[in-house]
Amino acid sequence: SKSSEEIKQQNSELSEQVHSLVSKNSAMKLDMEDLHKKLEMAELMIQQFSNQGGSLDANQQLQMALEEKASLETQVAQLSESLHQLQAERDQYVEKLKEERSIWQQRVQQLSEQVHTMAEEKEKHMAQIRELEANVTEL
User: Fold this and answer.
1) 57 in a structural domain
2) Which whole-number Å values give the CA distances from 32 to 25, 46, 48, 134, in the listed order?
3) Number of independent structural domains in the chain
4) First-to-final CA distance of the chain
5) Which regions span the lipid bilayer (predicted)?
């Protein structure tokens, strides 16, 4: 029975590893497809530059490529900054939720204590009422 359980556990662990490897493989395939697309785009750009060879000299082509690179770097920097801002906002939101959760837990604890106290008082008053009824009956 123990051996069977151990084998089931190992099987489960191996299944998780296989699932992880399949996920990594899929991600690598997507990355490879992306790289192939970028390569195709680069080849198209080379063909365009080759076809325009007479109209634009190498310096102009280089200048255009550098300008495009600078533009893309600016976009990446902006997206990176936006990502950092969103992460900071998320972290602030998480912290706020933690604080609110703590406040609500304290409030629930207080209310629970109040309910317990009121139940004790009710029981005490009920005992007094019974005692007074007994006294009235006796009188």
Assistant:
1) no
2) 10, 21, 24, 90
3) 1
4) 76
5) none
